[in-house]
């Protein structure tokens, strides 16, 4: 049976992206010039060479992509590992990535993105970190998760792993962006953590072919996806030449906010963070510093077509009871008795829900057991 047009479109895109020399910028230039991957693969050598960055050798490889590459084997590998392929333009493709200069033409995803993941903060830092860095990364990730943000990092040893752990310990979501294909987890000792993320906590993501192994040159390219998924990037412990600094530089180029955690003045592990702060990054001690800098949400995010735009990140993860009570609050103080009447909840339910919403920084307690929307 011949493949459907949609199936053939995916096969053509995979065949193009498996072609050596076709990276994010070149693929974007080719697809913008020709419209579809199929048209790219059907193009003549002369037409291919009209695209910036495409020389004779690359044009020849593109012309032979359908015969030299095997998209069906790639699709079989995806099925074996429960990996979805999201082409750019797919409804499931994360909207923040559309804004960056070199968005991935394809994303490989284990787990799933959710609308609330558009409100994300990255936490990155050194693999060779100190106990101070581990504690700080876990604490910030935990606080951000409780506030309603998705925490994004790279699943690496050290600060990245601490960020993922902190988010999950608080019941939040986290996304890991890998610098290798999703047929294997790197580093291998994080397989259990990756499985926990996929099991309802978030997603494992890569733009690389399934069996691509980890290579040093691939990680800076991976870092632009980490920052591209987020409103901002927090760097926790980075030596002067730390790879995590490339994530901060990508964030600056993508108009994302950059935050850095200070360390002891004599700590080499924090010297990169101190340079970022000196160059204008926001100094971060607590999650309040992040929320203050972001101010109003950069964009409105709608959890569903029939629901209103959120005013606070945590609204994307509220229970029905929490949403009901929050809807009864505004800028005018309301007492517990009033809220009991408005919601139909019991006194204990109202007090417990108010406590949760306070923890999520969505309501503020005033003297006399009065409450307002934060």
Kindly describe this structure:
The protein is α/β, with parallel strands linked by helices and 374 residues long. It folds into three domains: 1-69, DNA polymerase, domain 1, CATH 1.10.150; 109-294, Rossmann fold; 318-373, Orthogonal Bundle (Arc Repressor Mutant, subunit A). It contains 17 helices and twelve strands. The strands form two sheets. A nine-stranded mixed β-sheet has the order 1-2-6-5-4-3-7-8-9, sandwiched between helices. β11 (363-366) and β12 (370-373) form a beta hairpin. α1 packs across α7 and α15 crosses α17 (347-359).
What is the secondary structure topology, with strand pairs?
Elements: H1 5-17, H2 24-34, H3 37-42, H4 45-48, H5 56-63, H6 65-68, H7 71-80, E1 84-87, E2 106-111, E3 120-125, H8 131-147, E4 150-153, H9 159-169, E5 174-177, H10 191-201, E6 202-206, H11 219-228, E7 232-236, H12 244-253, E8 257-261, H13 271-278, E9 282-283, H14 287-294, H15 320-327, E10 334-335, H16 336-343, H17 347-359, E11 363-366, E12 370-373
Parallel strand pairs: 3-4, 3-7, 4-5, 5-6, 7-8, 8-9
Antiparallel strand pairs: 1-2, 2-6, 10-12, 11-12
Helix pairs in contact: 1-7, 8-9, 11-12, 15-17
